[in-house]
Amino acid sequence: MIDSVTNVSSLSLTKGLGSLVETDKSSQTQAVPGLTMDGTTPGTQTGQSFADVMGSMATDALGSLKQAESMSFDGITGKANTREVVDAVLNAEQTLQTALAFRDKIVSAYLEITKMQI
C-alpha cells in the first residue's frame, strides 16, 4: 500500500481511499456477500474487547497518577525541577478528569437503560 502512494495528491479526500488500494491481480479476491474486506462477517470481534480497553485505560490512569506522585516527592527532595513536577501533576489532573468524564457517561447511560420500558 505504501508503494502506491507516490505523492500527496493520492491522499486527497476527494479521491477517497480507493486510490490507495493495491491493484495487483494476484492479491485480489472475489467479493463474497456478507463478508468484509478482511474476510470476517460484520459484528465479528476482531480486536480488543470493551473490557480490555477500559482495563487498559484504568491501568494507564493509575500509572499516570503514581508517576505524578513520585515526581512530586522528587520535587520536594530536590531531585526534579519544578517544570517536570508541574508537567507530571497536570498530566495526572487531565487523566483524572478524563476518568471522571467516563464514569459520568457510564453512570448516565446506566440510568437511561434502567428507565427504559421492557
Can you describe what's shown?
With 118 residues, this protein is mainly alpha-helical. It has a domain at 50-115. The chain has 2 helices and no strands. The longest helix has 34 residues, at 82-115. The model is unreliable at 1-28 (pLDDT under 50).
What is the helix/strand order?
HH
Major sheet details: none
Query: How much is the radius of gyration in Å?
Result: 24 Å
Helix content: 40-55%
Distance between the amino and carboxyl termini: 49 Å
User: Helical segment tally?
Assistant: 2
Q: Which consecutive residue ranges, at least 5 long each, have pLDDT under 50? A: 1-28
> Given the C-alpha coordinates, what overall shape results?
elongated
Query: What is the averaged pLDDT score?
Result: 76
SS class: mainly alpha
* Total strands: 0
Strand content: under 5%
Topology:
Blueprint: H1 50-77, H2 82-115
Summarize the structure.
The protein is mainly alpha-helical and 118 residues long.
Features:
single chain, 118 residues, cell projection, cilium, Flagellar hook-basal body complex protein FliE
